[in-house]
Amino acid sequence: MAGVEVVVAHQERATLRVGDLFVKIDADPTRTAVEVEAMALAPVPTPEIRWHRPPVLALAALPGRPLGQLGEPSTASPAAWAAAGAAVRTLHDAPLPPWPGRHLDDLAARLDGECRWLVTNGVLPADLVARNRRVAEAALRPWTPVFMHGDLQTAHVFVEHDEVTGVLDWSEAGPGDALYDLAILTLGHEEHLGDVVAGYGTEVDVDVIRAWWSARSLLTIRWLTEHGFDPAAPGCEIDVLTARK
């Protein structure tokens, strides 16, 4: 029997790998339900569902390798990054999923609350937080909803021979901002933004993508810290904030 590998484990969910099978256990069974429905609707490659017994979801392993990892240089080619951009465009052109999306009204309040926490607890210097909060303001504008993945990290996009073989982790999918997906895909990999945009195939507002880099980093540092991750690791969220001018 193959060994059991713990892929990720924290208070909200755990993912285990046994051979070619990934088993996800989520404290909130609605997230795996969303994931199953989103994968059924998405017009891009997704993992084969072996079985689903809430709150547990078993998925077949994807061929290829992740496009990248936050905090590490990507070894994927520019063509692979462009292919990822093209896959995102295919998703965004699809009909909206039939459940509610994220609300702009809540975002500014959440962002301000996280900024206060970062400064009050001495996690980051006040001027760094204030500078990135100003940058993030450009993301707080009305958008035309698209079918958004919602957590399109490079580790969730698998490629082989410069083609996308599958996209993982659809629990945050729903109607949302197209530029948010492009921002999460390129977070910490700014050098590949041009490749992604070229593959996406239409003009985008790069300033809004940069604004989402700041907003995403400010919003997630507390969660990452409380769930055993290190946002201060080289190339990760705090470095992303430091790079913003």
From TrEMBL:
Native species: Micromonospora wenchangensis
Protein name: Aminoglycoside phosphotransferase
Domain Aminoglycoside phosphotransferase: 42-200
Entry keywords, A to Z: Transferase
Cross-referenced PANTHER family: AMINOGLYCOSIDE PHOSPHOTRANSFERASE DOMAIN-CONTAINING PROTEIN-RELATED, AMINOGLYCOSIDE PHOSPHOTRANSFERASE-RELATED-RELATED
GO molecular function, one term: transferase activity
One Pfam short name: APH
InterPro entries: AGP_Transferase, Aminoglycoside_PTrfase, Kinase-like_dom_sf
